[in-house]
Structure formats: structure tokens, C-alpha cells
Amino acid sequence: MMRLGGKYQHLVHDGGCSCLSPQVQQASRRLENLTRRGLLSGIGASLLMGVPQLGLAQTTEKPSKVLLRQVALFDGKSAAIQPNAQVLVEGSRIAAIDKSNSPPPFDATAIDCGGRTLMPGLIDMHWHTIFAAVPLVDATSGDPGLIFTASTAEAERTLMRGFTTVRDLGGPVFTFKRAIDNGTIPGPRIYPSGAFITTSGGHGDLRSLTEIPRKPGQLSIMEQAGGAMIADSVGEVQMRVREQLLQGASQIKVVGGGGVSSPRSPLDMTTFSEQDLGAAVAVARDWNTYVTVHAYAPNTIQRAISAGAACIEHAHLIDEDTAAMMADRGIWLSTQPFLSAEDSVPLTGPSAARMQQVIAGTPITYELARKHGIKTAWGSDMLFSPAVTARQGIMLTHLSRWYSNAEILTIATSTNAELLGLSGPRNPYDGKLGVIEAGAFADMLVVDGNPLEDIHLLSDPDKNLAVIMKDGRIHKNTLM
User: Fold this and answer.
1) What is the pLDDT of residue 137?
2) Helix axis angle, 298-307 to 274-286, nearest 10°
3) Which of 6, 181, 252, 380 could form a disulfide with 395, with the two C-beta atoms 3.0–4.6 Å apart?
4) Is 423 helix (H, G, I), strand (E, B) or coil?
């Protein structure tokens, strides 16, 4: 979680991140209590029992068979479009790809796409579901109903932008994920990390001064909220990682250094020791999944790699030697193309200065990633503003400074799905994502135009996405 500030800066301790300020932490805790013990648990139980859904019923279609006809197919892997194809969906899966234009099965719903581009649903590898678009005014009101409503609305908007899957890298999202998977609310598939693991004084330690010194056995407001957990010893690291995995984490997020929005954690600092990081990696490996580490500075990145981390988040201060090290060891880079202040909510003070460091480092990060052939995933890392999250597709098109349109589409589909696959048996979805092939999940978009020729079509999804399908369910269709 990176950015907060602007006109609400007076609510933040020491000019830091409002998303984990005491007021927001309290609101988050109340939301989690509500969802776990009340609204969502009740609705989830009713779904499993076949009881009506208390007014939150899914209204989208899920025909047993759908044939998408006359499509220009981008399968998520090839660099070229395959014209005059048709794709048959049965239930939640892609059943067949046909290039002979055979007549549709008698029991299938046919959608004539008129030569439009069919592509896999987009994947965002750095997202924060609960607070992506919750306005700070609503969050600080302490009203869980407002927070739940805003998060629910944003989940549907995320899906309507064409993002059918997100990797959630911090927040109390487990129950929310179940509500989406059960069909209670529309939204993307979620690969949850749960609370990210940090140290005292690290990015994510947003305790007020009245909560210091730390009292043994007593959780801070932030920890009670489920956004982050403080771990200052090997034993605490092991415990906190196991707790997230116990709740259903598909991967673990560990904070290795400072962050943009933390009031007292500059980007160049390093927190966990190599032994601490190694303990987190060992537990994740015992659960047959992986650790991704939040890190900006070369020393922080190198320590995470030496400890066995499989992925690095951000890395906007990376240098040549560190990039070579990542490439040599096959470490994934999950980063974000921040190009200007428009890609963030307004920031002031130290946070604004650090954001400028990130913006300045973005070109270097991508240039080194390309030079050394680092396996690179894309994510947006946007939060706390519906106006900013509406730029999710624009953030993807920023990659055009370094990649071709075909490369961008591949990164946001099959490449990102490859990184998701590192979660192994902890993968919450038993099927292929990011590709259009027989047996894969039917998560697909019909684009009114050819994004291989004009990637900016994805920056205006309301206008340019004609069909949005997730899990075989049609969430948008302007062609019928």
C-alpha cells in the first residue's frame, strides 16, 4: 500500500499514509468484524444452503453454453491475432476453439462479435481490494456500512474495467473474496495475501506514539484491522505467516523496507534481517507457496533474494548489479509504471517527495528489467479514490513506453497468470487463467477494436469493452 495524503493530510500522523491511520484502522476493524460475524457470513451461509440472498443476488447471466462467433482471437500468448475464430464456452470453462465457423450447437447461446477482438480477462498483480476506492471521508467516519458499500461498488467497477483477476497484497479480504466466489457480489477473482508482515518501524507500522512501546500480547489498532502484522523475531514471523496461510492466503506479502506513505520509513531503509526473511520463506515453502517482498532499495532487494523470496514488489530504486542478480536467479519483478502525480492521490510532505523518487525511478526500473531479461509482472497499486482507480487501464497503457502492444497484452494476461501459478496447491482456483484455450477458465473480453494496434482502447473500458465474461458468466454484453 503506497499512497495517501492531499487535503486530508491533517488526519495522518506525521504526514503518512491515511489508509492505516488510527481512524481508518478502526473503521477497517469494524468492517472486518461486521463481515466475519454478520452480513457476509450470513449471506455466504445462505448461498451454500440455497436460501435467497437478502437482496444482493447476482443478476448476471450464466448460460450453460455460449458460442462467441466471428472473433479476432488474441489467445494471451501469440503475438498475432487469429481471424475468423469462434470460441465455445460450457459452464465456467472454454470447451473448444474453432476456426472453421461450424454451426453453433443447438443448445448454445450464440453471440456474433462481428470481427471484434476476443482476449483473456486482464490480471492486476498489485491490488488492495478493500480500500482501493473507499473515500477517506467515508473510511474515517467509522461506518462499516459505507466502507462495505464502497468496496463492493469498486469490486464491480474493477470487473467492468476488464480485470477479471487481482492479486491482493494487503488487507482484510478473505471474507470479501468468499462473497465474490459465492456469487453474492460481482467482482474479480482474488488471490489474497491477508495482512502483510512488517517490523516495528517498517512500512505498514502506522502506530500512533501512544501505542509505543509495544506491549507484549497486545495488538495495535493496525493489527486488529487485519491490514498488517508486526513481527520482530523469527518466532513472530513464523506465527504471523502461518496465521495468514491458515485463513486462506495464496501467497505471503512481507515488507522488507520503507514505503512512500509511511511517516517514518524512507524508501532506502531495510527492515527484516535475512534470517527473519528466510523464516517467512521457509514457512511459505512448507505450505507449498511463495513470499513476495515489498522492496525499493538495492540492499533490501538483494537481502530478500538471498533469503529465498520468489518475487519483488516495486523496486523503483534498483541498480544494475541488483537487476543482474534478479535475472540470474530467476526472481520475479512485480512493479508499477508510475509516470506522474496523476497516477496517485494528492500527496504532501515526505510522502510527496518519496513519490517523486518512485516516478524518477520508474524508467530505470523498466529499462533494467528489459536489459537483463527479468521476469516482469504488471500491477497498478491504486487505492483510496474512485477517481484514481478509474485509471487502472490507463496505468496498463503506460507500459507502451517500453513494450509493444502485444507484449503489454501478454504481460497483463498469461505472464501475470504464470506468477499467480507460483502459489501451487494454495491456488484458490483450479484452472488456467490468462489464456484462451480449451479447458481454461472462461474469463474473456470482447474489445470493440484491435488492442494490438491501439492499446489505449483498454483505457476506456466503458466505451470499448463490448462483452465481459468471468467464469462463464456474462457481466456485460452490448452485442445482443
Assistant:
1) 59
2) 40
3) 380
4) helix
